Amino acid sequence: MSALMKLLLLVPSSFFLIALIKFLYDCLWTPLRIQRMLNSQGIKGPPYRFIHGNNREVAKMRQEAFSKPSGLTHDIFPKVQPHMYSWIKQYGKNYLCWDGVRAELVISDPELIREVLKNTEKAFRKRKPTMFLSKLFGNGLVLIEGKKWAKQRKLANHVFHGESLKNMTPAVIASVETMLRKWKGEEGREIEVFEEFKLLTSEVISRTAFGSNYLKGEKIFAMLNKLSIIMTRNVFKTRIPFINKLWKPGDVLEAEELEQGIKDCVLKIVKKREDEVANGEADSFGNDFLGLFLNAYHDLDEENRISLEDLVDECKTFYLGGQDTVNSLLAWSIFLLAVHGDWQEKATREVIDIFGNRNPHPEGIAKLKTMTMIINETLRLYGLSNGLMRRAGGEVQLGKLVLPADIDLLPLNIAVHHDPQLWGDDVHLFKPERFADGVAKATKYNAGAFFPFGLGPRSCVGMSFATTETKIALSMILQRYSFTLSPAYVHSPVPVIALRPQHGIQIIFEPHCINDA
């Protein structure tokens, strides 16, 4: 055999050998090294399984949990995150598990949670997003970091705080009035409120942030919802990078199509606003969310300018965040008030005392103490359940633990929100009085014990907007109706982005006698 032939055979063989060594290093040596490192510090967990990690176990446990009826209980942790519930019971509050080959430290110790999310030393960064999460949020606030995040967060702060928030109140009221007019013919009949509130919150975010209405954004909401569902069903599927490049499953192809469709629809809304200014129909891009971000896109100062891609991705983020979170919060609040009639009566009395039959106004909204307690307890029992993923930027100390670089960390809100050691033996009962003296006293001044909108510098920018919209909608409903849970209701909360009722929430509304006069 000639030297040239030997060389031709040797080169691909060498590449294959190098690729094999790297594959085994990434998929076997590194996971086992991390497992030994954390085990030696007292952090246990389900053992690493080659390539798949614990994903097969998780998928099986979730399938079993979701297939069983749960009964009407607020003890939902074992149902919505069965693997996490089981492993906390088995391995302790902080345990190590495996998302494929990636190590994940799940944290339900409030002190460690506070340290990770406050991130004073800048040691904990956002985890590199999965392919589906990236398609959903792109370069939006949820995923970006550094100077880009600071710039876009500053813009978003202008939209959802202070005077801007007050100016949104009339649009929220008008949207709720539209929904309530539709309900007039349905009094005494069953109304599925999760779908009703989906339309309401879609209308509100369309009006307040984009100066349009639900019908103009309908396709965007529908595509974002489909993309959210695709992402959720792929969370615990193991993907091998080089195989994915050769063959794309149906979900990947559909996600790519949806991503492009959402982008095209958002660009039409952006262009319409630009054309209004260009044609003299408007003298500025406006002061709403879209207007402020369009101003930044057209800014002559490169330091302040954002790209078209950033603009589109922020629009996607706020279409989804402004609709999904409030939709779930409103639906679960109504559900809990329907089940707990005593608190419905207390909330109604407060609303009538403050507003009478008038529409809610900012000064009165600020005085809704009972409703604030109810909303906080709803967020504790039925808030986000997927945790807030971070990763260690380098080798770092967390409490007494030394963590390897690039390990993922998952501060788990549902675990601390349902922890009897933090909230007492009545942790699974709906007791808004826990929050009678505010969140700080309810948590004994432990910030890591209650974080429904996150914690620290990356807490949800739309938090005040979400709670204000919820208070307005609940106030206007309570002014007009008393309500009960329909016998048709089946209790089955499921985690998507926010926690959703798998079979909807069926409510029967009866008008107050005072409104019949």
TrEMBL record:
Cellular location of this protein? Membrane
- Cite a single GO MF annotation: heme binding
Instruction: Specify the domain of life of the species encoding this protein.
Output: Eukaryota
Tell me which UniProt keywords the record has, alphabetically: Heme, Iron, Membrane, Metal-binding, Monooxygenase, Oxidoreductase, Transmembrane, Transmembrane helix
Does Heme show up as a keyword for this record? yes
Q: Which InterPro entries did the record assign?
A: Cyt_P450, Cyt_P450_CS, Cyt_P450_E_grp-I, Cyt_P450_sf, Cytochrome_P450_Monooxygen, EF_Hand_1_Ca_BS
Instruction: Name the cofactor(s).
Output: heme
Q: Got a GO cellular component term for this one? A: membrane
- Binding of heme, residues: 460
Topology class, membrane: Single-pass membrane protein
Q: Which PANTHER family has this protein been placed in?
A: CYTOCHROME P450 CYP749A22-LIKE, CYTOCHROME P450 FAMILY MEMBER
The family line of this record is: Belongs to the cytochrome P450 family.
The entry's protein name is: PHYB ACTIVATION TAGGED SUPPRESSOR 1
Q: Which organism is it from?
A: Hibiscus trionum (Flower of an hour)
Q: What is the lineage of its organism?
A: Eukaryota, Viridiplantae, Streptophyta, Embryophyta, Tracheophyta
